[in-house]
Amino acid sequence: MIAEIGIVTTGLAFAAAMYAIVAALGGAYLHRDSLVVSARNAALMTFPLLTISGLLLIYAMLNHKFSIAYVWQTSSRDTPDFYLITGLWGSQSGSLLFWSWLMSAFTFAALLLNWKSERRLMPWVIAVTMITLGFFLVLNNFFENPFERYWNMPDGSVQASLFAPADGATVINEATTDGQGLNPLLRHFGMIFHPPMLYLGFVGFVIPFAFAFAALATGQLGTGWLKATRAWALVAWLFLSLGLLLGGWWAYDVLGWGGYWGWDPVENAALLPWLTGTAFLHSSVVQEKRGMLKFWNMLLIIITFLLVVLGTFATRSGVVSSVHAFAESEVGRPMFAFLGLA
Known about the structure:
3 strands; about 5% strand; mainly alpha
């Protein structure tokens, strides 16, 4: 039942995101406020739906539901509870769900906090955030679904599938099964906080980009969008800074590099948006106080978003060899397509 509910809530979140995109763009072009309000409601709904999905996966981890493939791959009966929870971001499909949940949470907060003050920008903010979220939910629903289960086939083999792959297929017996456990490299206290901090930093920069895009789309290129985004950019920058520091600690303790930084491709991919985000925070103050660097600020936040997408692609596509990267999987091609579209 856990898997079935998780499949439904993740699928409903994707449907809500798709509707929000269409309604937001329709409201913007047709100047119909009712459509924008409807889009906002749909976007807000993605957060509770993905919260349910995430909690279901954590519950499955804590209760050793090894019929779910992700639980089997990232946990075992002797894994401590706090590492079971961190298993949520211990492999590809779970971390994608965690990323989607964070994206929905940031969107939820932005739509509540900035709805009245930046109402004219909101249709485009909703569209950009939901397009980003919708892409990751495409990956979660159609490429890397964390609720995929193991099935005993009639011929005696075991197959992973969301639903029964053949007549007579039965879910494997959880009582007599043990998982393979979490990757030993991830069994470090720093890994409890390092990935979430990086994800919060990466996802957080989507909100400033959404406001920047909305300002370009509406022609409101004054300081309004900048004031709305500086707080979000600062929050994202702080989380990304913490993530980089914790990652250095983990690398020093676990990897045996003899230092905190190894100029690993994925490390560098996380550092680049931090550098451009730092530049944006400084230059945005100049625009607010002196009205200068308008083009530079817009360019910086767009580059920061593109670097976030690039870093995500480098980590998840399998195109680079790194202890920080996930193994090659089916998400590589859609990630490359999203990078090209961005």
